[in-house]
Design a protein that fits this description.
291 residues
Length: 291
């Protein structure tokens, strides 16, 4: 495996402990990254750690401090922080199980692949993986990682397990202040029927490959154009801001929904027709080959 594990430890279910490794499920270098550049010299800008009245300081003079009162800190060394004994530093114990759809998506944060450390661990690993899949449950536990203890969820994915870090309840904002002024009045049935039909027409199996990050693609194209132009300034075409509907220009919601639905049906017919033509051509080709 090319990547290095970000954590090694034990995945525990009751008295069963399995040596596992964690790998990040996302790639950090997939998008262009920028640095701040000093324009007159073209050199990158670096940052110094400074103390007011002292100036730049050396790295070995820096400690971590917790501000217990305004301007007063208790200082902690790396050794003191490492000495904090947490079982979750080396053990991820599954202490509770919930239905796979019970966790609100707002709680999910980052994803990691969980794999057995060696072949000897695979038998027990497969048992937990398949048991979670069969019961359609998600295992919950806690894990100390990079100076923080996370609430995590474990679920099967492919032949392995996926661990997702979750936000704690205290980290989630309450929705009431944002939604309190929105009426709880139900939508009109005829409008709801058309909107539901439109959703059904556009429903398909999720495939992440269908979607592209258009901004990143445009950004890479801009970088290529800039390189080819040898640094000359490139001006973007100005886009007209969409006109906001006025009192006389309010869109008829029902008409808009019906038009969207008809457009969706038209696309579906076009795709179906194209598919039929392709099949007909394929059959004709097959007949010619056969003859």
């Amino acid at each position: 495996m090319a990547a290095r594990p970000i954590w090694k430890g034990q995945l525990r279910l009751s008295l069963v402990s399995i040596p596992v490794e964690l790998y990040s499920a996302t790639k950090s270098g997939a998008k262009p990254s920028f640095r701040q550049i000093h324009e007159p010299t073209g050199k990158p800008i670096h940052y110094q750690k400074v103390v007011e009245g002292v100036g730049p300081v050396d790295k070995d003079e820096i400690m971590r401090g917790f501000e217990y009162e305004k301007g007063d800190y208790v200082l902690l060394t790396d050794e003191e922080l490492d000495a904090v004994k947490l079982e979750t530093k080396r053990t991820l114990e599954l202490t509770q199980f919930v239905g796979a759809c019970e966790i609100d998506p707002i709680y999910f944060d980052k994803s990691y692949f969980v794999v057995p450390s060696d072949e000897l661990a695979e038998d027990a690993f497969r048992v937990i993986r398949d048991a979670l899949r069969q019961t359609e449950k998600v295992g919950l536990g806690q894990l100390a990682l990079r100076g923080k203890e996370y609430l995590v969820a474990i679920k099967p994915t492919g032949t392995g397990l996926l661990m997702e870090t979750l936000h704690y309840e205290a980290e989630i904002r309450k929705a009431d202040p944002y939604f309190s002024e929105i009426s709880d009045k139900k939508a009109e049935k005829d409008l709801l029927d058309v909107a539901t039909a439109l959703i059904e027409k556009k429903t398909a199996k999720f495939d992440a490959e269908v979607f592209r990050d258009h901004y990143q693609a445009a950004l890479r194209e801009l970088i290529e154009r800039k390189l080819k132009s040898k640094g000359r300034k490139i001006t973007a075409k100005e886009e007209e801001a969409p006109a906001r509907p006025s009192g006389e220009n309010v869109v008829d919601l029902m008409a808009a929904l019906k038009q969207s639905l008809e457009g969706s049906r038209g696309k579906a017919r076009t795709k179906s027709s194209s598919a039929s033509k392709s099949k007909s051509k394929a059959k004709a080709t097959t007949r010619k080959k056969a003859s």
